[in-house]
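Sample intake sheet
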Amino acid sequence: MKTFLPLFVIVAMLMALTVQSQTSGNDKNYWYNKDLQKDKIPGVSSDRAYEELLKGKTAKPVVVAIIDGGTDINHEDLKSVIWTNTDEIAGNGIDDDKNGYIDDVHGWNFIGNSSGENVMEDNLEVTRVYRMLKPKYENADSASMTADKEFQLYLKCKKEVETSYNEATTQVKNMNILYSNLRASDAALTAHFGTSEYSLKQLESIKSGDVKRYSDFMMYWMKRDVDTLDVKEYLKHFEGQAATRYNVNFDPRNIIGDDWTNNSNPYYGNSDVKGPRAGHGTMVAGNTAAVRGNGIGPDGVTSNAQLMILRVVPDGDERDKDVANAILYAVNNGASIINMSFGKAYSPQKHLVDSALRVANNHDVLLIHAAGNDGENVDINVHYPSNFDENGNVINDKFIVVGASTRSFGKKLPASFSNYGKKSVDLFSPGEDIYSCSPENKYESVSGTSMASPIATGVATIIRAYFPELSAKEVKEILMQSVTKYDKKVLVPGGGKEKVSFSELSVSGGIINAYNAIKLAEEKVKNAH
């Protein structure tokens, strides 16, 4: 019989979930824009750069593609920085600019259809690989297939999917029981006190009687800042894993009606760039370019971006075909920088993405990618899209992978959740407790390398805007050479106690810095003349 997770594991998970969604008063300082020397905060020094180095200087607008899950383009703090395809007439049902996409005024949605339907939930890639290989290998003789790499991949995916699915269904039961018990305890205590606003001190005052078991139970969870809303969110998380992410019988691709393994026809989708779940993409857009100095919401890192919105990420893993086509769309429609705050553990059509990366490389486009949130060394555990081919060679020399740092300039400088790698992660950028935009003119604080990447994209945008003569490769070199160094020991991400020098966690060994990058760019341009 399947056993439940130990209570302490459930507690840790619930507390982690709670922290991810909290917004503290300090978040509104937009610490990621601050400067270490001036403010004693290890941000990217964008405020200082605009105040001291860029006043009175002219800049060229930079088209930045946000490849994500959709963005609220009408958000009050973003609508003025959204890219517009001036060669397309909105809503006329005609491909005015002849680029293959009808009414693509602000970008494109590759996970929808021409009838306006959109994919919202999808599997994880491991589930799709398992489903794809199952007919071929489910009755295979294991003893005779030990050297078959594809068969071993099938076995690996089968184990991961079936184990994760079973764990998810078990935890749905766990969370339902916990949720029910919390509600029952709350009802009993509300009746006892005559109010639902009882305190921990009041609970501690109960020494006997039938209500004591309710007070003991509620005290345990209150001391851990867990309530019914937290449990409900966690229940929703596990329900999603069981219903869609690890469910081999769920496949929403029929909405689009294509062969997702073949890219002979890239002209599919629709012009709905917001889609049904725009939270993540709206936050990413806000980190890069929420309007600076307007007195509402956060200040994005840059004032110089025009955001092209490309939707490819559902609630689940993105598909390689959609990622490849979004990159190609961005390149072919004028983007100079592409932000990719997504990733996964498997890439069955990696060749499609690799081909798109090569096209971007040939068109002077800078790509910036989130390292991932597994607390792993991605030199060992590959996080896709990967910029290395099957022989370990670099595919695109204008590709930057970003880990997440915190505002603590000490042993906790790298975020505990951030992936890292001396070979595979190029630099770090603020990614913990980042205040940003949320759909419907709202704001919230979130953490993740998904936030670190667009902050780095904002810095890159400043350089491309004020120094348009520099190539994407030169911009990458400048960003890498101008990082804020920190050579002291830090905790290795992942939650353990191991320490290494911060410089060992990435290629550059530092945190991206706009002020330093601008000074280096000025020197480079000056020396070129």
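Comment: The first strand starts at residue 62 and ends at 68. The domain at 24-118+260-528 is CATH 3.40.50.200 (Rossmann fold).
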